[in-house]
User: What shape does this take?
Amino acid sequence: MTSPDSASSALAALSGVPFTKMTGSGNDFVVFDGRHVSSELLTRPEVIQAICSRTNGIGADGLVILDPSAESSAPDHALRETRPGEPRSTEVSGLPIRLRYFNRDGTLGELCGNATLCSTNFAILAGLSGPRRVVLDTDAGRVTARLIDGLPEIDIAPVDHVLEELPAIALAPQEQRVGFALVGVPHVVILTSDIANVDVFARGRSIRQDATLRPAGANVNWVAPLPDGRWAYRTYERGVEDETLACGTGAIAAAILLTSWGLSSGPVALMTRSGRDVQVTFRSDSGGLLGAPSKGRVAATTWWPSLRGEGRVVFRGRIEALG
Assistant: This one.
C-alpha cells in the first residue's frame, strides 16, 4: 500500500511535466512523451488516478505513454515539442514506438483502439514517426498505422477468438443476440432494437462481473441499426467502470459480430455515443479486403481488422499541482 507521503511526493515530482490532452470520438486521454518524463513515475496507480481525475486532475478515461524505440534515438534538436504544421528536421519512419495504455483506475489496458488512434496522430506530430507508416508496440501486440484523409487508421493483430453466441449471458428485453470477441481485450457484443434506453451502467456492470467472464471480466457493447445503414453502439468499459463515449476495440468487436451474424458486409460504419463515426474494415491475410461470409463460401475464422476514426489534440499544457 502506498503511503500518503509517498503519493504526494510522486505527484509533486510531476510539476512542470508536459502533456497532451487528446480525444478519439469523446474517449479521452492524457498522452505523455516518454522522452520528457520518467515512465516509472507515471505508471504508479495513484499517479494515474490523480491525472485522470475529472475534479482535481486533468481528466481522462485513460493515460498513454509513448516511448521511442532504442533504434530511433534522434539528435537533441529533434526532441523539442512540435506543433501541427511545424517543419521537423528529423523524422523517423517505420521504427517501432512503445505504447503503454492505463485505464483511469490505474490498471493496465492491453489495447485501447481510440488511444491507439490518438497515439498515431501524436507520434506523427511529435516527430516520433513519419506519416506514411507508424508502428506501435502495445501489450496486445504490434499495430501498424497511418493517416488516411487526415484521420488515423490502425491495423490491429489478427482476431481469432470469436463466439457468435454466448448462451451464458441471458438476454434482457429488447436484446436479440449476444456474442463475444477477444480484440486485444475481451468484449461482449449485444444486438438490440432499442439502444437509446439501454441501462448501460447497471446492465453493463452486471455482465462485466459475470462469473463466466472471470477473472478478466469484459467490456460490454450494445449495437443497433440506424436507418442510413450505419450502426449505433454504446459501451460499458472495464477499468473506467462506466459508459464511455466511444470504444475503438468495442467498435471492432461489434463489426466482427455483425459481419459474422450476416447483418453487415464490407466496411462497417459505426456511430459512437458522442455522435462521431468510426469505420472498421477487414483484410484477408493476403492484404485484400474481406467481405461478409456468405452461403457457399467458407467463413473466415481469423479476422484482420483495421479501425479508422478521430485522434484529435484538444490542448497541450504542463502539470502544476495535482491531488
Notes: The longest helix spans residues 113-125.
